[in-house]
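Researcher: For the record, we're logging two predictions in this thread. I'll number them. Prediction 1 follows.
Model: Prediction 1, sequence and structure:
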Amino acid sequence: MGILLMTILLTMSLLMDGIAHSVAKTVININILKQIEDDLDIDEKISILFMILDYANGFNNIFELFKLKIKNVYIIVDYVKNNPENWEEKVLEALCILNNRQVLKKLGISFSVLDLQYVPKLTSYSKSINVIAKCLYKLCESLNESEQKLLLNYVKSEIHNYDPLLDNVDYLELHMLYWIQIGYITISKDKMHNMKKLLKHLKKFEDGHIKLICMELEKFENGLQVVDNCQIFGTKNENYLQSTSSEEPSLIKRHHFRKKIQSINSGLCIIINQMYFMKEYETRFGTSADSINLSETFKTFGFKVEILQNLKKNEMLEKIKNISKDYGIKYDCLFLCVLSHGYKGGIIASDEKEVSLEAIERALCCMELKDVIKIVIIQACQGKTRGTISNSLTTDGLYDSFTPTEDIRQFANFFMFMSTIQGFLSIRHKEHGSWFIQEVCRIFKTYGNQLSFYDCVRKIMKSIREKKGTIDGNQIAQLTEIRLDRLESDFQLKSRQ
């Protein structure tokens, strides 16, 4: 068994063990935390404290530590000694969000393992820390120096007698803790968040990243989603890659929408099926089975289905961009299914040019479709690592060798579901089609008119996780991924047959 395969299997074993054998508690203790602090600058220390603290007394606690102990002391250690609850998990998650790989490497943990466990790039998810704090940290990172000063001026204009102790403090997180203390914004464990005043000022900024964070904060503010820390991808204290039974709560718990589940009365499904390529990429045998399966599945629910074959990069993006013009907008839901080879962060067009996932998102998300539910399903590899092909199995990839937007609303109601996690290959049978598309179709056909979309996604992820196969005599496995989720409500398909 090769070193790569052993590493993958070990990684998967660690993931499946989950929090029952908490990685954090085995790699971090107070003495190690002191060594970690030695490698952190004051900015990183403040950011970590901002994400892990108890917000009821956060400002006073952290500001005193900040004033008295700026250099060569252990302010995180001092805090966790007085607030010991689950501190190891919180610190490890915060380090992951900070993307401090140097420190994580010293801890001897694979970042890919942590990336799966904590999903640091997904703003709307957290495992142990408060998800609003994660959003606000992402906001601090997105604002440049002049934008931070501008935001502070906006807020100070509304707060009389702003604490003079903060006059020369550049750390925006400390100002935010002060805003929490005086009630300007509210973060609480019972999810009664209040961001109205801050959101009013954030909407004045034109930067696309800030607007996306603003959208996430607005969802929490409006109660469109309820975030259960530690429970988004599974039950409490459970890794989202662990197996779940059908009786367990929904895999994606943040979507306890107050709105009723939307019923889909009309839908459009666009399938981009890339089978043939120029030189470097092999013919994707089995993809026709996927294409036919998807077509039959969505026709069952009364969707209009259009199959586009072997598109070059410019053709693909143009077709996606013109969906509203070519097919109209009088439908509740749009599924865009892209079947191709891929690379980390994108897919390959028939002319073997790379098409980023962001380019697909931007081509699809237009003002004409802002109120339409947009689901993108990607069957393609996302890297060169296989979760470890018999001759009948192959993979979708090579393993050998924000411009500003005019209106951020166009990115609403969007969901991207990937056949595999970032950095890994995706398995396809050369006759029957890919594991992922087979399960998407099976679950939708079986449960689509009984369960909501999110519950179907949960079943698909669980089913793929349990699949096993062999390639070149090696055991293989695959894990799906929710890449982006900005849906404003859950929905349910309606069978027309």
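Researcher: Logged. Prediction 2.
Model: Prediction 2, sequence and structure:
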Amino acid sequence: MPGSAGHATSPRASFLRRDNKLEKLQEQVNVLKASLGISDEDLLWRVESSKGNAFLAADQHLASSEERYDRLVFEMQELSRPDRCTDEDKANVILAAKLRSLEQQALQVAEWKAKAVACQTDMAQTKKILLAARVETELQRAKQNSNATASATQLEQLTSKRLESIKESLLSVQQQLKPGQEELQTLLEWLGTETDRFAASLVAEDKSPSYVISVETVEAKRSLLTTLRAIPECAQGSGKLSTLCTKATQLASKITASRARDLKYTETELERVMRDIEIWKTRREQAKEFADEMGKREAAWQTRQREVNDGSLALMRTFIPADITDLTVEALVARAREGLDGSGSGTLYTYDLATYLKTNRFLHWLITHGDDIERANFLAVESAPFFMDFTSYDIHELQALVRVLPDSFSFDKDGRKRVWRTSFIEHVRMQAAQHQHETIKAGWDPVRRARRDVPLPKLTARQQLNPIFCYPTDAEIDARLDKFERQRSRLESKHSRLKKLDDELIPQAKAEYLAVAEDARNEDMQRTFGKTTLNALRDDAKQQHLSLCKERDTAKRELVHGERAWAAMSPSFEQYQAEVTQIRALDPEIRNAPRVGARPSPFGGGKVNFLGELQGRFHRKGSNAEATASGDNSEAESASVGAKKPMNFLDELKRTSVRKAVNSGDPAEVENISQPQVLEMPASSSKSSSTAPPAPRNFLDELKARTANK
């Protein structure tokens, strides 16, 4: 129908419209990329990440990039091997030189052979001519034709001379040909040996093919082997010899160039993969699912390690009493020695171990409530060294600490605590993996064409067990005693020197100076020895006196510093001597045990009853306060040494409740708890309240009341 033909859509018009839509879409995409400043790869990643879990996708790409990296590193090592790089290049250079020598020598021998053949042909013809000339001479003589005889004789003489010349040329050629042939044979023998070696290397490569070598290089090597085998057949003057030698030289150069090209390509790919690894690491960290996925992985690891970490936590808690912050080093040693029942059957703590446990605030977290750990300002200057040096702890300490680590920290606006926690968890996970002899994916296995399962290095003895938890050996004890003795000897020598300076040398020098000064003022002495001489003697005596005084002042300062250091040593010399005596008196089985006092523990172990400990600490501090107010000054003074200000139990409970309310986010509860708590006191106790603190309410009743109010 003519009318319908005008409204029909031709295939060409539809195709053009589709092309226009694609062009417009491509133009829009280009404008979008230009406005956002992203590349095609970035745009593809945004599309891919929007379709699913960006963290898992980036992690998969990262694993693939790391696998390519290991493969390329292996290829780089294979291509850079001495037998594939330096040795092969040297062999190719030597082969090219030998082939050139072989070509020249073969051509020279062929030329000499041609000369020898030509000389032999000329000599045969000359002999025939000479024989004919002699026959002619005899005939002419028989005819008695003098002129013809003379002419024939002259021809015979010329032919004889020419024959002698040809013989000399042939002899010269033969003398050159023999050593030339020997040299050519030597080159051919070397070429045969090199061909056999090259063929053996190709057979070995065929038995264990390597995908590192390109197909072009393999084909060039096979062509070179075929050419080398064909050269001896053409070494006897064939015209193909020059062509074959030139071809072999070109193939050797091609092999070297191909290997260098493969090495350059591998280096370029390796650089690109390294950039890809950094890109995918950044994209994985910037994924919105990063925190959740890392939390899941950490939780899964914590679940797998729960039993091991709990065992390490129980073990480490056996070394630390719950009230360690209230104990001195000496008190900690005494408490450990007394044991749980106070019978003196506990564990001998060394002063080094007690000092380590007392001062290490990180280990105090093992017996600290989780709420207090969350609010701790542990990155402060005074405590940062204990938290920043992860390598100073053994595997059991790390596993115990990671068990009490909170999921997050409060008061962390700058994120330093979060970064510290991540670093600590990674360190502990790596140490635990090494301790359990796990493997990681690293390197490349050319047989399986996959990444190797490489076992992690074993933990060092220091990482397996902190030496502070072991009794010192006799050699260590003797070395430390020698150090004490040397330090004490230095102090005694300084003290003796100072005493000698004060009692002898300085008074003598002063008296000498005064005497010389008196002589310098005497007129008779001046006339006898001269004023200049006396003044010089006086100055020398004065300088000697001043030098001794300066030495005395220096000795005093050094002695004061040394005595201060000696007094501040922990343990002191006497304490260490007593400790050594106790250590040497231990049972050999106990002393040589892998760990100090592992079982039974002087402080118990397992879970810490934080509520009971808080109540017991309050009662202990309350009893100390009552003892102070009772008037027994001597006992109060002894009880107050090193003790802190008595803690009000209700204030402590109030602070704990406020922290929990703040964490729960309930404003009404915070407001309710923030109101002052009035403790009702009986009327009969109003008189005694002025001299003693109010009696605390029962802890469990208070806790029940707080729970009911909530």
